[in-house]
Amino acid sequence: MDHHTHAQPADHDLPRVLDLDAEVFGAGLASALDLSGLISARVVVDLGAGTGTGSRLLRDRFPEATITAVDNDPRMLQRLRDEGFTAVAADLDEGFPELSSGRIDLVWASSSLHHVADPGQLLSDARKALATGGTLVVVELASLPSFLSEPRQALLEQRCHAAADAEGWNRHRDWTTTLEDAGFVVTKTQLRTTAPVTLAAWENARQWLRRFQHLETLAGVDRAALEDLVTAPAADLELEPQAHRTVWVCTASR
User: Fold this and answer.
1) How far apart are CA 97 and CA 101, in angstroms?
2) Secondary structure of the chain as H, E, C letters
3) Cα–Cα distance measured from residue 110 to residue 151, given in angstroms and rounded to the nearest whole number
4) 142 contact partners, CB below 8 Å, separation of at least 6
5) 143-172 per-position pLDDT tens digit
6) Distance (Å, rounded) from C-alpha 115 to C-alpha 224?
7) What is the mean pLDDT of residues 34-47?
8) Can you give the pLDDT at residue 2?
9) What is the mean pLDDT of the chain?
10) Can you supply a Gene Ontology BP term from the record (predicted)?
């Protein structure tokens, strides 16, 4: 799924938003996969694959593996199939999909677990589906990505983040206990990614600023300042793109 926020306003161009997040902060996902310690894998499942950010990363890392991308959005599924992935339509609220149970070497769940109604059951099912010695990697944004570095603009962005937090954006629990209850041994790590200032970073920053305009609790003066930033020339935005992620690397306890 790879949706980076929870309870956000609907995005009519969600695939583009997700692609920008991946292009700007993709190095952080690669670092998250590094934490798994896996050198090889034969069967890999991307739970909530979205536009395929994780699936492409997994294919690049494990070119000999069979990679199955799971999602419930027909647009995303068609795109995944167009890129050559085995795409499976499944509602994760109904549990782990029927795949190669007991043979999966790696399950990857990036920014998808917090969308699931019963994550405990899904994780328990995932553990049973893993091969002996298999690994589950869960990734969530620890906070919304930040972009602005000029002090006044950065303070405005922080107030937008506070309002977004209050409205439930990116709301998820610390999955450690849930993972342990599902039968996993868990290592939790915090990662920070500082991205270069590129054209994609400029566009990504504007996309997030436009999203913040939908915040209901944002103060009027901040809403006006946000409108000025959204419509300002790119040269008026001083950027230092950063993303903070939490990564849980999990192995089944036997």
Assistant:
1) 9
2) CCCCCCCCCCCCCHHHHHHHHHHHHHHHHHHHHHCCCCCCCCEEEEECCCCCHHHHHHHHHCCCCEEEEEECCHHHHHHHHHCCCEEEECCHHHCCCCCCCCCEEEEEEECCHHHCCCHHHHHHHHHHHEEEEEEEEEEEECCCCEEECCHHHHHHHHHHHHHHHHCCCCCCCCCHHHHHHCCEEEEEEEEEEECCCCHHHHHHHHHHHHHHCCCCCCCHHHHHHHHHHHHCCHHHCCEEEEEEEEEEEEEECC
3) 31
4) 190, 244, 245, 246
5) 999 999 999 999 999 999 999 999 999 889
6) 32
7) 96
8) 40
9) 91
10) methylation
Bridge-partner residues for 109, per DSSP?
138
115-143: pLDDT as tens digits: 999 999 999 999 999 999 999 999 999 99
What pLDDT was estimated at residue 101? 60
13's tokens: 């161009």
Strand 130-141 and strand 239-252: the pairing is antiparallel
Amino acid sitting at position 247: V
Quick one: tokens of 170?
A: 């990116």
Q: Residue 57 has which token pair?
A: 């990363």
Could you tell me if 241 and 138 are in contact, meaning their C-beta atoms sit under 8 angstroms apart?
A: no
